[in-house]
Amino acid sequence: METILSLIENVEKVIIGKRPVIELVAVALLCRGHVLLEDVPGTGKTMLARAIAKSIAVDMKRLQCTSDLLPSDITGVSVYNQKTSDFEFRPGPVFTHLLLADEINRATPRAQSALLECMEEFHVSVDGTTYELPKLFMVLATQNPIDMAGTHALPEAQLDRFFMRLSMGYPSENEEMQILVAQSQLHPIETLAAIATEAEILTVREAVKAIHIHIDVARYITHITSATRQHPDLKLGASPRGTLALARASQALAFIRGREFVTPDLVKAIAPAILEHRLIVRPQAAVLGQSASEILREIINRILPPVL
């Protein structure tokens, strides 16, 4: 637990006033999940990815998504070597520990689909050969919810592969003052030291799996996801992948909070980040102002949590 708390505190030196967001990214890291950061430009999405990579001392590569991006630009390509008279595979940016897919919705569906296998299976298949990705592989994708011109909305299959969706949000006035002071001479990212190793994070992942989920809490989780599929205002509810993600995220959050078992309050706290992006509201309900956030909140408030 000390390793993860130190990691969160280290990232806070760069990303000021956003501990809840950093904590949730740490949850995704412990669950081998991927994060979709949806927010306006300039709120620190890229810097968050850089801070996490530097804190763990792992490689990070940035993929700037544009309309002319090809799948081979992501996964890699085989190039003919005249000296050896054979084809050699040249890995793409996906072969890293932390991949920042900047403005992912600006890539075409064809390019977006190149990430599907990487995010779910953690390997890449090129020309009939499968290449394994690092055990700590994680995708941090960003998208701007305001400027939608020239973008391609992520399909449901792609959204479902993201472990959680987060929003950075603007800092408060006091926090913005702290940012100005901290960056007056040198950006904190330049002096940020690594406080954990890849091996330590992998060890912590195994410890998270040992966090107990009582059968009643597990049933509570399935009640929530099942209710999303039966809600009249939702066209699409949470998938079984969403149910598993909610359970694993609850375990990781319990570990970070120093608990030995998952409680219903932890499930409630992390459910929006895990489930909201997996829900599709019916057009009739959307016209009336209903949102996935409001519907999920109503479902959670309606289902009685178990008493442990």
Word description of this protein:
The chain has helices spanning 2-12, 19-30, 45-56, 71-75, 109-112, 114-121, 156-160, 173-182, 198-209, 215-230, 240-256, 264-275, 283-287, 292-302, and strands at 35-38, 60-64, 76-81, 86-91, 98-102, 123-126, 129-132, 138-143, 164-166, 234-236, 280-281. It contains 14 helices and eleven strands. It has two domains: 2-199, Rossmann fold (3-Layer(aba) Sandwich), CATH 3.40.50; 210-302, Helicase, Ruva Protein, domain 3, CATH 1.10.8. Strand 3 (76-81) and strand 4 (86-91) form a beta hairpin. It has 308 residues and is of the alpha/beta class. The strands form four sheets. Strands 2-5-8-1-9 form a five-stranded parallel beta sheet.
Strand order of the largest sheet: 2-5-8-1-9
CATH class of the largest domain: Alpha Beta
Write down the domain tally: 2
Unreliable spans = none
Concise overview:
This protein has helices at 2-12, 19-30, 45-56, 71-75, 109-112, 114-121, 156-160, 173-182, 198-209, 215-230, 240-256, 264-275, 283-287, 292-302, and strands spanning 35-38, 60-64, 76-81, 86-91, 98-102, 123-126, 129-132, 138-143, 164-166, 234-236, 280-281. The protein is of the alpha/beta class and 308 residues long. The chain folds into two domains: 2-199, 3-Layer(aba) Sandwich (Rossmann fold), CATH 3.40.50.300; 210-302, Magnesium chelatase subunit I, C-Terminal domain (Helicase, Ruva Protein, domain 3).
